[in-house]
Structures are given as C-alpha cells and as structure tokens.
Amino acid sequence: MIEPRPQRILLVDDDANLLVVLAEQLHDDGYEVATARDGQEALRRLEAGWPDLILLDLMMPRVDGLAVAREIKAAADLPIIVLSAIDTADSKAHLLDEVAEDYVTKPYNYPELRARIQRVLRRLGDRIPRQSLVLGPNLTIDLHRRAATVGGTEVKLTPTESRLLHALAGNLGEVVPTETLLARGWTETEGADTSYVWVSIRRLRQKIEVDPDVPVHLLTVRGVGYRLVSTHDDA
Amino acid sequence: MTTPDGSAPESGAASADVGAGEGTAERRRAGTAERRREDTGGRAGEGPADRTGKGHRTAGRLGLSFRVLLTVGLIVAAVVPLAIFGSILMLAGLYTNGRVVVPLLIAAIVGAAFFGLLAAAFAATALTAPLRYIAAAVERVAAGEHSPPIHLAGDDELARLAESHNRIAAESQRRNRELGALLTAVATYTPAQGVKALAALAEKDACHIYSLIDCRLALVDPATVPIEESIPGDPRPVRADVSAGGEPLGVLTGHLPATRGWERADQDLLDLFSSEVGMALRNAELFGQIESQNARLVELDAAKDEFLRGVSHNLQSPLTSIRAYVDQLRAGSEEAARDRRLQIVAEQADRLTRLVRQLLTVTRLEAGALRPEVEVFAVGPRVRRAWEALNATEVAFELRDAGRGWLAVADPDQLDQVLWALLDNAVKYGGRDGRVEVDVRTDDTSDRLNVTIADHGPGVSEADRKRLFKRFTRGASQGSGEGTGLGLYVSRQLLRAMDGELRLEPAREGIGAAFTLSLPGEPPGDGD
What we know:
Chain A is of the alpha/beta class. Helices cover 37% and strands 21% of the residues of chain A. Chain A folds into two domains: 8-121, Response regulator (Rossmann fold); 133-228, Arc Repressor Mutant, subunit A. The longest helix of chain A is centred in the last third of the chain and has 15 residues, at 194-208. Chain A starts with 7 loop residues before the first strand and ends in a 7-residue tail after the last strand. In chain B, β2 and β3 (247-256) form a beta hairpin. Chain B is elongated, with a radius of gyration of 50 Å.
C-alpha cells in the first residue's frame, strides 16, 4: 500500500544529541520528523498539526514523561511509542499500557525501533473504543489494559496477543488474513512466520474461549485467516 | 533443708501433757512423719508450732488411742489410792469386821472407777473437741481453701496451738498469693516491651506482689550496690540478684514495713521473681538486637538495589548516544561500513548494553520484582542471533535444529540473557579446542523444547558440580576472565520463573560442559 504522503513522527526528547541523530535516521528512512524538547513544546507542536506517531522519551530528568504522555493522549488520541528504562518485566509496566502502544528500552537498536514504528503505523485506520468491548456473555476485552474478562475471571494478555486482538477487533466480524495478522503482531526483525500466528491464536483461544476446542468468538477461516465475532448480533 | 532423721529433736510441740504416769509419748515414729513442705520448697521456718507433720500419727507408746489412755489413767488414778488405802487399813489391823470392810472397799473401788470413767470422758471431750476443730482448720488450709483464723478461748497450750495454726495458715496463704501474683506478672512480660519498660514494670510488680514500701531494679553490677544493714525498727531492706544464664544483669532492692517478717521462704520467692525478671530482660535484649539487625539488613538491601538501579539507568543514556552515533557513522559511506574500528566500537557498545541489561535483571530478581512476559518464537534462530551478538569469530559454532517448527513459550529478552551467559561461558571455558555446539530437540511427551549448549573444554569437576547453581559460588577453576555476566544461579531462576529449567548434563566422552535449557513448547499445528 503506497502512502500518499510521508508519515509524520513527533520526537520528544530533551537529549539534544539523541534528537539530532534519531531525527536524521528517521528522515533518511522516509519519515517527516518534528522535534520537541519537553512536554510544553510537544503540545505546541500538536497544535500546529497532528503527527501520525509520537516517540516520547520517558527518561527525561526534569520532566515527568508519564504526565506528558497523558496530556498528549488527552489532547489527541495518537499512537505513542515510549523510550524508557522500564521494560516489560517491571511492575510499573502496566502504567504505560494506558498511554503507550509500545515501549522500547534504551539503549535501543535502531532497526528494531524502526520496525516497531512500522508495526504501530500499520494500525492506522483502526477504530477501537478505549473502553471495554463486550463480545458476548462470557467475553469482554479491554485492549487499553491488555486484559480480557472471561466468564467472570480476568486474564492478562501478552503484548503480541493484544496486538492480534486489536487487528481482529478493528475489523469485527470480518476476516483478517493471516499475513496481515503477522505484520500486525510482529516486526520484520523478529523473523516470525505464519506458524507464529497459528500458535498465538491457539493460545489466545485457550485464554478467552470458555471451551477452546469449540470456539465461539475467535474463528478460523480456512486458507485465509481468522475473524473475531461478537455473539450479540446474529447477522 | 532438713530431712527427718531417726530421732526427732526436742520440739515444743503442743502435745498435751495429760495425765500422770505413763501417759506422755516419748518417742515419735519420726520415720513416718512427713514434714509439711511449704510451697517454696525451702526449709520450714522456725517457730513454735511448726513441726507438726501431716500424716503424723499421734501414736502413744503402745499404739493405743489417747482416749483409751486417758480413761485408763483416770480410772487407775481413782482406784489405786483407794485400793492402797484399803490395803493399809486391812494390814494395820483395823480389820475387825471383815465382812463389812471388804465389800465396802470393793464398792468404793467400783464407785471410784465409775467416777474416773466419767471424768475421763469429760476431760477427753474437753481436749479432743478443740483439737478436732484445729485439725479441721488445718485440713482446710491444706486443701487451699480460704480459712479464717480460728480462736480458742483460754490461755493454755491448746489456745497457743490455735494461734500457731493461724500464723502458719496466714503465712502460707500470703505466700501462695504472692506466688500467684508473681506468675501472673511474669506472664505479662514480652520481649517486645524492651529492657527499660520491663525493668520499670518489674519494680512496680515487685512492690505490688510483696507489699514493699519501695522497690528499685538497678541494671548495674550487683557488686557495686552495697548490701543494706537491717536495723530493727526501720523498714527492713530486701534484695535479690537479677541474672540470666549465670550472667548478672542487675539487682532488685526494696524495703518492707518494719513490722513485716522476712523468712527464708520469702527470700526464695523473691529470688524466683528475680530470676524470671532476669530471663525476661535477657529476652528483651536479644529481641532488640535482632530487630535492629533486621532493620539494618533491610535498609542495606534496599540501598544496594537503589544503587544498582541508578547505575544501570545512568549507563543507558550515554550508551544510547554512542550506539546511535556509531550507527550513523557506519551508514555514512561504504568505507565507514567496512571500517573495523567502527565495528568494534559498535560491538563493545552492544556488550555494555548486554551487561547493563543483565545487571538490571539481577537486581529485579533480588527484589522479587521480576515477571516474565512470555511470547512464542522459534528458539533455533534466537540462539543463532544470540551467538552472532557475541561475535566470537575465532570459535567454531554449530547449531543442529531438530525443533520441527515448534515454538518456545518464554520471555524472549530474559531468554536472550540466559543464552548470552551460557554461550559466553562456553567460549570462555571452551579451552584450546574452541568449538561450541547447540542442539535443539523437542520432547513430545512433555511438550517441551530442549536446547543443549556444549563446549569442548575441560568440563565441570565433580566438586564443582554440586555448587554450580548455588547463589554465591563461582567455579573453583575460574580464570580471571571478565565474569560479570549472569551467573548460573540467576539463569536458572529466570528459567524457572517462566516454567523452564536449566541443568548440567552428566559428563560424557568427547564433550566438555553441556547445559540443557528446557522450555515449554508448542507444536506448530496445521493452520487451524
């Protein structure tokens, strides 16, 4: 799919060295880059026009990155990737789930970062309400919290599972091809193939279906892909 | 403590001296006499009426009861004089009318005997009633019941016996009460109260228990507190050493009202209290030490974690800059991309990054804040990538992937750290024949993927095998090498946290050390 215009990224970081280098690298890869040194500057840039994605460094010493992220999200519901010292193993990681689509720890690997940017940008066009999505009497998903409630019990979803469900929920009731799911769930640098999608869907079924062997929400469309259905409307 | 010996010493025991003649018991069967022991277990105090034994038999010489003796005695006393008098009369020749005198004499003797019987009955009752009364009171006190003081009219030995009983009963009840109060007080002492508070409590309790005028518990060497002289008329000083386990902790001093007596049994009770207080103080001391040590340990632990975390955070920003600029330089031109020097800078920056990651992981593990986030991925390619990151180009590497498309279920970042650690070790200890082989296999029965990393070095010695995965050991054969990577202990903990395992394979011919990682695995399925 050819984008009619270059995608715009807003880079928020107080480290001048980093801003310069990263902005150049992203520019070389075809993105339009705007920069901001702190939260206020970031909000001003937003007023001038919305980017497609925001790269926010959380490790700014004099700025509360999390507060900035929240402010940005309140001003414009744009995808944010955070650069942070907190990784997924940290107990505070769930705080970031509220505001960030993805997070990358420093020091990062540029190709990895670029791959994640691409993955997040593929999500453009999805319209997912930022609240619970009730798919049936036994399934409610809360993608903004990376969780689902199955038959009364809450289960946590991994980031990958969350991304897959996001892709499926963004096209509720319609088939999503396996290749699309692959591109949405993983970056090129991860070396994933379709078996990753199969196995992940199988594990997702274990988590969200009351009877994984007889799925009612996460259905296979042989030879094409998968689709997520709500059992409310019988259309 | 005196034990009953064969001959009972002289006692002022109030066995009534009744009757003349052979009435009094001279010998007690001391062997059967039990000394009534005070509850303190000390010697019975001395005093007038204190050797009365419980179970002591008032046995007369002939084993006849007192009543019988009395009766016989009185009758004899009444009859004998008459008989003698009659005999003398007869012998003196006043015997003229034998027919009159003899029956008269016999009648007189019978009459005397009869009156003697009556008198005996009366006297016996007069004696045994009070004695029974006293005995009943004694029984009550012995049974521990509350027994009011008894009174006997009169001024004789029986009355004095009653008074003696009262005194003993009062003393024993008092000491029992003191003992009860002592035990109650001691039961309230807990180590958490602290030494000072306990000492103050003990002072108050001692005053209360022993009805002291004042009391002081000084936590000093007892030798430094002079022993107070007891001056008659002044409040009587009392004192007991407080110690625990033979070690003196202090001394308890106080004063009794001048009118109070202080017996051996009372001193014993005070000593008992002091020894309990000593133990409580010792416990409080130890408790306090442990508490403060614990607090310090917790502080140190938190400080260490904070420090390590700060260090790794501080390293992350500069490393990011270095990496970013080197990447840019290398992307600048063909020549730059091939420049070995730039490549080395990049590699070393990566190595530092790995170390920082490992450092963070270790601190999180220690703080219990590690939560693996599992993903599915192919483990063979992951191992190859980990190997390539190490850049050990002089070492031959062979990967045999029999995974059959199975995907591992694990935290990819943490698995990377474990792989780096194991591969790094394989290179370091690989010895001259630097060759590293990795086998990936599936275990269908248990749904697991096993990755064995083997080197061709000297292997792990028997002695080291046992200690290898322990927290703080390093192999005895450790070279000086840069061994700051993830240790085997941490590696195993990481794997276990994601439902995996790490073990050392048994030694085999042709192989050095071989470690097997085991992870949960998922077969690829068939697209459904």
